[in-house]
Design goal:
- By secondary structure, the protein is of the alpha+beta class.
- Strands 14, 17, 18, 21, 22, 23, 24 and 25 form an eight-stranded antiparallel beta sheet that branches. Strands 11-28-27-26-12-13 form a six-stranded mixed beta sheet, sandwiched between helices.
- Belongs to the glycosyl hydrolase 3 family.
- It comes from Streptomyces pseudovenezuelae.
- Its EC number is 3.2.1.21.
């Protein structure tokens, strides 16, 4: 008798639609198996032949954290290219490398957590390097391109499944898990949601990751916006992955829920499908979910919905159809094409900010290259390990010849003398070949934290150290052989790191004045350095030495400015390479405090400029600076450009490549131009190029070229729901170059505050000398709409709109005005709708908070003090005789019209029992016709709604 082959279960049948296959697989999973899938590390189900699965693989500008990979420019640098097609190719290369790496290492995931589409509203945000732009249109264009590259172009299967970060209104690291972003409806819809929406609607997004912060008083991980907005934008099953540790924050730091069972159930119900918490230990989350289910906080349908979304991603990645997966055999890794693309991206990201004719440099120019970053190729927290590297110094050697280039890092060289007269000494070590990278560089992953290397000691002569000052009192110390001083878990100080890095950077120190010398404090542990018989270490908190730390005298062998002057006076041109280390002063968990360039780098720049006026400043940084440029003939900026950064910079300096990067965010002239870091009201705070009324150091979209371009023949035709815009651009220079043509609009007679300029479209083009490009754009009329709080919807206001074409938001070459038809709107109908409290036109001293834990907004005086709200054009019809307010907490609401005397004062006689325990207060008033309503709030109350009756 022949044994029959068991039938193939439907979930394994590639001929069936994914939805039917997922239904079948769900039915086969036990309740415990389903719940186990909801942790980041979903276990294998051996009885069904299902492998383990992990959500999350960092891939912001290359495959990160998994060892060697192609490293592309930082995300803000990719934004500076203004080139979606280039960024699509970068995404394609990254996803190919993820597939190739996974074939040899199953730790590499295909559900990639990238890109970051948080808007770069505030340049002091520590994670500025991770976003693309301050503008939602540019951000969505670049993000859409990257996700399309990551996804691949097969109609059924995805190469990788991209997840957008971080939902929503997340622009501060300071208190990021407990602070709330107060986001009024217009800002929510016109700004923060927009970059996410346009990218999701483009169809290449697998999901989103909520941010750590709260929005309007409610943690993003229980945000109703996930349901109300995100999932309404697409029919696809979007996977929502929590940020690491955020589910526990709902109780532990935010205290939003009393128990983890309540919190986990609320997050799942709101739309979180995969919980990233407690690392690889799934037991905590699984236990919470099981108890929440047993307590009736979750239903089986809630769990199945989340598992279904996760399985949808896994099916789209081809996990269940290995024979049909077109990407299963992808092996493209560190290919010549990827290396060339990394260089192309680095070149396109460079922005020429100023040029008085000094650039490009002639081939026979004698160059002095100086600065802390002159011989560095810096990585950030979300980089892979370099296979290839190129520093500015190396690039200039290649481009101009080593005999024409002189180098001075410009750091102070010091020895540290103890109070006993001895000096700190770095023992010599032989670094084994296995800790060196492909080109001889030390591998930080193999050096950092090592305890098998000898700690520092003291001796009569000591070791000369490079003292590198990164600003704000933070410094690093480097031995002559390139090893940075670091502190391992055992507390000893060793020269054991190739670069500063890690989640907690163990290579940074502070010098604190003490009597006639300094104390040396290790930042990572917060403890002072002490000298013991067995070596130099951080003082143990239980050790008596902690009470009397070792004072050091700094004995200078050379000041950095001296070295700069020495090479600058012999050169035709000085190139000062300044900027930041991405692990220090501005990174995840750490916002900056100033736009200023670090003081030591300012001193180096002044020394170079005073010695040789032909000085070029090349800023290599993850964010903008406010730096004086008046006396400098040439200034460039690039984000940290990945493995080809130095080659790219040298090719631009030499003129082999004409720069065409454009600023993706405003560069402000000083700190006084900035709003408070936690002021998320871009409209009321007049923030970003959209609303900023001051004079920027360099405006949004700015960037110069070695060529010149003329614009002509602007025409606009409105039909079929779109504005059809065309104009021509001609290269009037003598070199082939790229130009980034930018199209903006401005409402001429708006009834509410509208942007000064708003990007509609852009295009990067390459033109030979004398060549002309005829550009055309189809702009949907929805791009001219604004969010009308009087009707809680989008509205195209009729009237004149300027259409502007040019080379930046301020360099407008052509303009015309077009009349658009639309909805004239009208005053607010007080009897029909009243005033939802958060739908104000203006506010002072007000924060938006959660009306209830589940949904809705209310307003409250910031800090529990006093605040004022203004609602324009409120129509009371033939008259009203009563006002009611829905309030909770304690305090008073005072109402007036048009800024006149108070008509009513409504006070809570006693505090309500809780922040969500609302009551209705009423008072008689007399009002008719159209007026501006002013509300003055005093005390820690929440106002949800104001109603009127006649």
């Amino acid at each position: 008798m022949t044994e029959q082959t068991p039938p193939t279960p439907p979930f394994r049948d590639p001929q069936l639609p994914f939805a039917k296959r997922i239904d079948d697989l769900l039915e086969r999973l036990t309740p415990d198996e389903r719940i186990s899938f909801l942790h980041q590390y979903a276990p294998a189900v051996e009885r069904l032949g299902i492998a383990a699965f992990r959500t999350g693989q960092e891939a912001l500008h290359g495959v990160a954290w998994m060892g060697p990979a192609t490293v592309f420019p930082q995300a803000v640098g990719l934004g500076a290219t203004w080139n979606p097609e280039l960024v699509r190719r970068v995404g394609e290369a990254v996803s190919k490398e993820a597939r190739a790496m996974r074939a040899h290492d199953d730790r590499v995931g295909l559900n990639v957590w990238a890109p970051t589409v948080n808007l770069l509203r505030h340049p002091l945000w520590g994670r500025n390097e991770e976003g693309y732009s301050e503008d939602p249109k540019l951000t969505s264009a670049i993000a859409t391109a990257y996700t399309r590259g990551l996804r691949g172009d097969h109609p059924t299967y995805w190469r990788t499944a991209p997840v957008l970060k971080h939902w929503l209104a997340h622009n501060n690291e300071t208190g990021r898990d407990v602070t709330s972003s107060s986001v009024r409806p217009r800002v929510l819809h016109e700004y923060d949601l927009r970059a996410f929406r346009e990218t999701v609607e483009a169809g290449a997004v697998a999901g989103v990751m909520p941010a750590y912060n709260l929005v309007n008083g409610r943690p993003n991980h229980v945000s109703p916006y996930l349901r109300e907005h995100l999932r309404a934008w697409t029919d696809e099953d979007l996977l929502v992955c929590s940020d690491a540790g955020a589910p526990s924050n709902l109780v532990d730091s935010e205290h939003y829920f009393d128990t983890h069972e309540e919190a986990t159930a609320a997050a799942l119900s709101a739309g979180v499908d995969s919980f990233t918490d407690h690392g690889t230990d799934a037991s905590q989350i699984v236990g919470r979910l099981k108890r929440a289910y047993e307590q009736g906080l979750l239903t089986e349908a809630d769990i199945d919905t989340a598992v279904r979304r996760q399985l949808s991603v896994r099916f789209r990645l081809g996990e269940f159809d290995p024979r049909y997966d077109p990407y299963a055999g992808t092996g493209d890794f560190d290919t010549p094409a990827h290396r060339a693309l990394a260089q192309e991206a680095a070149e396109q990201a460079i922005v020429l900010l100023k040029n008085d004719g000094l650039l490009p440099l002639a081939p026979d120019t004698r160059i002095a290259v100086v600065g802390l970053l002159a011989d560095e190729c810096k990585l950030d927290w979300y980089s892979g390990t370099l296979i290839h590297r190129s520093t500015p110094l190396e690039g200039l050697y290649e481009q101009f010849g080593a005999e024409r280039v002189e180098f001075a890092e410009g750091v102070d060289r010091v020895r540290l003398r103890t109070s006993q007269g001895a000096f700190l000494h770095v023992p010599l070590v032989e670094v084994a070949d296995e800790v060196r990278g492909a080109e001889g560089a030390l591998d930080p992953a193999l050096l950092a934290g090592r305890t098998d290397m000898p700690p520092l000691t003291t001796d009569p002569t000591g070791t000369e150290l490079a003292l590198i000052d990164w600003g704000e009192g933070l410094l690093t110390l480097r031995a002559p052989d390139g090893r940075y001083l670091s502190v391992a878990e055992d507390g000893y100080v060793r020269a054991s790191a190739d670069q500063p890095g890690g989640w907690v950077v163990q290579e940074t120190f502070r010098l604190e004045p003490h009597e006639d010398g300094h104390l040396l404090r290790h930042v990572g542990t917060g403890r002072h350095i002490s000298v013991a018989a067995d070596g130099v270490k951080v003082a143990d908190e239980n050790d008596e030495r902690a009470e009397r730390p070792e004072p050091f005298e700094l004995v200078f062998a050379e000041r950095g400015e001296e070295a700069v002057r020495r090479v600058a006076e012999q050169a035709d041109v000085v190139v000062v390479v300044a900027g930041n280390d991405p692990h220090i002063n501005g990174r995840e968990t750490e916002d900056r405090t100033t736009l200023r360039l670090p003081a030591q780098q300012e001193r180096l720049l002044r020394a170079a400029r005073a010695t040789n006026p032909r000085t070029v400043l090349a800023l290599v940084s993850a964010y903008p600076y406010a730096v004086g440029t008046a006396a400098l003939p040439a200034v460039l900026w690039t984000a940290h450009g990945g493995q080809a950064a130095g080659t790219a910079l040298a090719r631009v300096l030499s003129g082999e490549v004409s720069p065409a990067g454009r600023l993706p965010q405003t560069w402000y002239a000083n700190d006084g131009d900035l709003p408070d870091l936690l002021d998320y009201d871009v409209i009321g705070g007049r923030q970003t190029y959209l609303y900023f009324e001051g004079t920027p150091l360099f405006p949004f979209g700015h960037g110069l070229s070695y060529a010149s371009f003329s614009y002509a023949d602007l025409a606009v035709r409105v039909e079929d729901g779109s504005a059809h815009v065309s104009f021509t651009v001609t290269n009037t220079g003598d070199v082939t170059a790229d130009e980034v043509a930018q199209l903006y609009t401005r409402a001429v007679e708006p009834s509410v505050p509208r942007p000064r300029r708003e990007l509609l479209a852009h295009r990067r083009i390459t033109l030979a000398p004398g060549a002309r490009a005829d550009l055309s754009f189809e702009v949907p009329l929805t791009a001219f709409e604004f969010w009308d709080v009087t009707g809680s919807g989008w509205r195209l206001e009729p009237g004149p709109y300027d259409v502007l074409a040019g080379a930046s938001s301020e360099d407008v070459r052509l303009r015309t005005t077009v009349l658009l038809d639309g909805d004239p709107g009208g005053p607010r109908r007080m009897l029909q709708r009243g005033l939802p409290a958060a739908d104000f036109d203006e506010q002072s001293g007000i924060a938006i908070v959660d009306r209830a834990r589940v949904s809705g907004d209310a307003v409250t005086p910031a800090g529990g003090g006093a605040g004022e709200l203004v609602y324009r054009d409120c129509d009371f019809g033939d008259g009203v005789t009563e006002v009611t307010v829905r309030v909770a907490g304690e305090g008073t609401v005072e109402l007036s019209l048009d800024g006149g005397p108070a008509l009513a004062e409504l006070a809570l006689p006693t505090p309500t029992s809780g922040p969500y325990d609302y009551t209705i207060l009423g008072a008689g008033i007399v009002a008719e016709g159209v007026h501006d309503v002013h509300l003055r709030l005093r005390g820690p109350l929440r106002l949800a709604h104001v109603g009127f009756s006649g």
